[in-house]
Structure formats: structure tokens, C-alpha cells
């Protein structure tokens, strides 16, 4: 095998190597997007949705007690407040969109207002209209947060699908390119201009 043939083989192998590396980089980036989207759907959306549901459930318990004129037990209120604060601490660790952050900040402020009302025994026992109104405000905020979880979850699913479609597309392109390169390399290797020149000289 002469130097020119060796050079052709090296160039051919390098071309194939370049195509494989380039497509693998695209695939790796796409799979990273899928992995990140799946993690986001679970950690920041499903977990957040569950936290919202648990907070909503506590607020419903409070509303039921107020509507049925059940005597408010200080220990029960303290337990509910503690549970809500624990849920808020966990929700703080999730990634929030800008809109979600604004709604969540307002929710925490309104929740503090609710806790302040609960400390006022006269309002709680005589006229709980303000208390029920405050609960409704909090419920609306939780509904908004729940809707955002659904929207963001759908967005992440869409990102994952696009990434997987990209992987599929580049896999097909890689196969076609490798076939084309294999043909080109065979032509380059088999082509021998010197032999053709010698044949022309013999004819003349």
C-alpha cells in the first residue's frame, strides 16, 4: 500500500469519524434536554402539584370548620399552620416561572393575613365572613398555581418530544451520510489516475 492510498484511507476514516462524532454530540444534547425535561416535570411540576393539593385540602378543612360554626381549637389551628409552613418550605425548593413566582409571593402574603385573623378570637367566633373571604382569596391563588403546573408540564413534554424527534432525524441523516461516504471513499480509493495515464501512453 503506497503513501497516496494510505492517505486516502486516513481521510476516509476521518470523514466517517467526524460524521459519527457530530451526530453523537447532537444526540447527547437532545438526550440532555429530555433528561432535564423529565426531571423538571417530576421535581418542579408533579411534586409542586401535590404540595398545592395538600395546601388546598387544609384550606378546605378550615372552610368546613368555619361554615359549620365548629369551635376553633387553638391546637388544631397551630397544627394546620405548621403543616402549611412545611408545605411552603418544600414549595420554595421548586423552580418557579416569573408569573408563578408573583402568584406564589401573593399567596404567602395572604396566608399570613389568614394566620393573623386566626389569632383574633372575636372575629373567628362572632363574624367569620372576613375569614371565609380570605380563604376564598387563597383558594383562587392555589387554583392559579395548579393551572401553571399543568401548562408548564405540557411545555416540558413538548420540549422532550422535539428533542426525541431531533435524535430520530439525525440518526437517519447519520445512516445516509455514512452510506454516501462509504461509496465516495470506495471511489476515491479505487480511482488510480496513474494507471489511466499509462494506458493512454500505450495506445499512442
Structural account:
This is Chemotaxis protein. The chain crosses the membrane at residues 7-26, 175-192. Keywords: Membrane, Transmembrane, Transmembrane helix. By secondary structure, this protein is mainly α. It has one domain: Four Helix Bundle (Hemerythrin (Met), subunit A). It is built from 6 helices and no strands. It has helices at 3-67, 74-92, 98-119, 121-125, 129-190, 193-203. The longest helix is centred in the N-terminal third of the chain and has 65 residues, at 3-67. The mean pLDDT is 77.
- From the N-terminal CA to the C-terminal CA, the straight-line distance is 29 Å
- Molecular shape: rod-shaped
Do you know the CATH architecture?
A: Up-down Bundle
**What oligomeric state do these chains adopt?**
single chain
Count of beta strands? 0
Q: According to CATH, what is the topology?
A: Four Helix Bundle (Hemerythrin (Met), subunit A)
Average pLDDT rating: 77
CATH C-level name:
Mainly Alpha
> How many domains comprise the coordinates?
1
Low-confidence stretches: none
Name the helicity range. over 70%
Sheet/helix structural class:
mainly alpha
How many separate helices? 6
Q: Output the radius of gyration.
A: 33 Å
Largest sheet: none
What amount of the residues lies in strands? under 5%
Which sequence of SSEs, written as H and E, runs from N to C? HHHHHH
Protein name: Chemotaxis protein
Transmembrane segments: 7-26, 175-192
Keywords: Membrane, Transmembrane, Transmembrane helix
Organism: Croceivirga radicis
Amino acid at each position: 500500500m503506497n503513501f497516496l492510498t494510505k492517505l486516502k484511507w486516513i481521510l476516509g476514516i476521518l470523514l466517517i469519524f467526524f460524521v459519527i462524532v457530530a451526530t453523537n454530540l447532537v444526540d447527547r444534547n437532545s438526550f440532555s434536554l429530555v433528561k432535564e425535561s423529565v426531571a423538571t416535570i417530576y421535581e418542579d411540576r408533579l411534586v409542586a402539584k401535590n404540595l398545592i393539593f395538600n395546601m388546598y385540602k387544609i384550606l378546605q378543612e378550615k372552610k368546613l370548620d368555619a361554615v359549620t360554626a365548629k369551635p376553633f381549637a387553638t391546637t388544631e389551628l397551630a397544627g394546620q399552620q405548621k403543616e402549611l409552613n412545611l408545605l411552603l418550605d418544600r414549595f420554595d425548593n421548586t423552580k418557579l416561572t416569573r408569573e408563578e413566582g408573583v402568584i406564589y409571593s401573593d399567596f404567602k402574603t395572604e396566608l399570613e393575613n389568614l394566620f393573623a385573623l386566626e389569632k383574633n378570637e372575636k372575629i373567628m367566633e362572632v363574624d367569620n365572613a372576613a375569614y371565609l373571604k380570605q380563604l376564598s382569596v387563597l383558594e383562587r391563588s392555589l387554583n392559579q398555581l395548579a393551572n401553571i403546573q399543568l401548562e408548564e408540564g405540557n411545555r416540558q413534554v413538548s420540549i422532550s418530544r422535539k428533542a426525541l424527534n431531533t435524535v430520530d432525524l439525525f440518526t437517519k441523516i447519520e445512516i445516509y451520510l455514512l452510506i454516501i461516504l462509504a461509496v465516495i471513499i470506495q471511489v476515491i480509493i479505487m480511482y488510480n489516475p496513474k494507471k489511466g495515464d499509462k494506458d493512454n501512453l500505450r495506445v499512442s
